[in-house]
Design goal:
Blueprint lengths: L6 E4 L7 H10 L4 E5 L12 H13 L3 E6 L13 H18 L3 E4 L11 H19 L3 E5 L5 H8 L7 E5 L1 H8 L3 H7 L4 E6 L1 E4 L5 H5 L9 H10 L3 E4 L8 H10 L6 E3 L7 H16 L2
Parallel strand pairs: 1-2, 1-10, 2-3, 3-4, 4-5, 5-6, 6-7, 7-10
Antiparallel strand pairs: 8-9
GO molecular function: isomerase activity
Protein name: Sugar phosphate isomerase/epimerase
Pfam families: AP_endonuc_2
């Protein structure tokens, strides 16, 4: 198998500052970067028009593209009607920033979609995603839900209720095998009409875990990336591991992406580990083997 998909890196995975993370992304052989844009210097309210132009130029001068921004606001996602207006507004500003910086994808977690479509939380999430989907579509952009909190078929059912594909999917195979035990290959085929960005990550499930333990739920604690990283490194329930050492069948996963005609980025995310730079460098080479060069 050979493919031409570009390789991206989550620059925050290096756990250094923004500029150094961008430089390291280039050094390890990536062609694109995904950047968190929810707080600090990358938060939309902290980036002036001039700063946006300068950052875009800086990234281009490194020979990189932005594969996506991460607009994950954590907490309970969009399950809480009381805080949704503020979160929707912030998400729109992140979408604006993405387009200004030259990408049309913002990835996020929206909270676990309830199993019961009659659950009031389902309608609250539906309303928020409908508004964001329409707004993203007006920018020719995508607000992309990361896979993991629910099985692929259920996520597709939720997406099918929305009026546009402005809300789409950031496909993460490791989240699926680690938490729900879902099959990423089947997931790609089920969600094929919605996949606009992917993560390349590997993991192993140690014991079955209810998604609420990982991703939170309204009425329970909210989601934080710090908590997920701690769980993924402790190995009590699941373990995030370097590419090729987990339960993701990358031969079949990459083949499935080619089968559905996916042309977007394969973006490496490494949320744990003592030597992320080394793991990311190896991950780039791991993907390049499939590209044949």
């Amino acid at each position: 198998m050979s493919f031409t998909n570009k390789i991206g890196v989550m620059s925050d995975s290096f756990q250094v500052g923004l500029r150094e993370g961008l430089q390291k992304s280039k050094e390890v052989g990536a062609e694109g970067v995904q950047i968190y844009a929810v707080s600090g210097e990358m938060s939309p309210e902290n980036l002036s028009t001039a700063a946006r132009k300068e950052l875009k130029s800086y990234i281009a001068d490194l020979g990189l593209e932005i594969s996506a921004l991460c607009g994950d606001l954590g907490g309970h996602g969009f399950q809480d009607a009381a805080v949704n207006p503020e979160k929707i507004e912030k998400s729109k500003r992140i979408l604006d920033l993405a387009v200004e910086l030259g990408t049309n994808v913002v990835t996020t977690h929206i909270g676990i979609v309830p199993d019961d479509v009659n659950d009031p939380i389902y309608a609250v999430m539906q309303s928020a995603c409908e508004e964001l989907g329409v707004y993203a579509k007006s920018l020719n952009a995508y607000f992309a839900i990361e896979t993991g909190p629910e099985r692929s078929a259920h996520l597709k059912g939720f997406l099918d209720t929305l009026s546009t594909n402005g809300v789409s999917v950031n496909f993460d195979p490791a989240n699926m095998v680690m938490v729900t035990g879902d099959d990423p290959v089947e997931g790609v085929k089920i969600l094929k009409d919605y996949i606009v960005h992917t993560h390349v990550k590997d993991g192993r499930q140690i014991r079955p875990t209810h998604p609420k333990e990982v991703y939170g739920y309204l009425g329970y604690e909210g989601m934080t990336h710090e908590k997920i990283a701690e769980m993924a490194s402790s190995g009590a329930s699941f373990l995030e591991v370097p590419l090729g050492e987990g339960q993701v069948n990358f031969d079949a996963y990459f083949a499935a992406l080619q089968e559905i005609g996916y042309k977007g980025y394969l973006t490496i995310e490494r949320e744990v580990g003592a030597s992320p730079e080394e793991d990311i460098r190896k991950a780039v080479q791991f993907i390049k083997k499939y590209r044949g060069y």
